[in-house]
Amino acid sequence: MDSTGLLLQFRSDMNDLAVPYLWSDEDVLAYADDAQKMFCRKTDGISDETTPEVVQLAVVPDADRLDLHPSILRIVSAVRTDTGRPVEVINPSDMPKRGWYFDGNTGVLKALVIGSQAHKARLYPKAAETLTVELTVFRLPLLPIVDSEQALEIDEEHHRHLVLWMRHLGYLKADAETFDQGKADDFEARFLRYCENVKAEQRRKDHKTRVVAYGGISITN
Predict the structure, then answer these.
(1) SS3 of 192, please?
(2) Cβ neighbours of residue 86 under 8 Å, at least 6 residues apart?
(3) Strand partners, 117
(4) CB 88 within 8 A of CB 80
(5) Contact 6, 166 (CB under 8 A)
(6) pLDDT tens across 42-65, in order?
(7) pLDDT at 127 over 80
(8) Average pLDDT, the chain
(9) Residues 64, 55: Cα–Cα separation, whole Å
(10) The pTM is what?
(11) Closest CA to 1 of 214, 179, 153
(12) What's the confidence (pLDDT) of residue 71?
């Protein structure tokens, strides 16, 4: 399904099939854009380790902070591309227990410190070399949905369920023929329940089964 498919599905579900429509194409496409973004925010988002402008960070000598792509929701890992060695991704509160402080000294990069400023990563220590750090991230869609026949970035199995959020937004339209707070709340709840189920399913897939031996008895958990 693409953006046109979502628009047509919305009109069918809302019984908005006769011209003039109760919801304009522009409104419905805006609902679709918001639905895809909200799905990503409520789940893990879109996994990405290959889009250069998102996952590659260029480090130069004396660099202190780097810009992070605004689509990034969560950084899973970071590695140096020259050696493949990992770079820690930590919060400022993690530094004192390591005995690390921003003292202005330069050295071999040990960590990206995130969380103190939106869309920024601070380097520890300040860079003394030129290198590239490559991230694995979960992110928002890169392009807004603004036109017909636009491809969606989330997996196809979730496309149909975006209409739940679109209907939530549709029933919030401030018009006597469209506004219905009760229905808006119902479709919001249904969409959020779906997202919770998707998130739980993803966590189960990501869970690594471990076998622990106790006195010759193996227990899987």
Answers:
(1) helix
(2) 77, 78, 79, 80
(3) none
(4) no
(5) yes
(6) 999 999 999 999 999 999 999 999
(7) yes
(8) 93
(9) 18
(10) 0.88
(11) 153
(12) 98
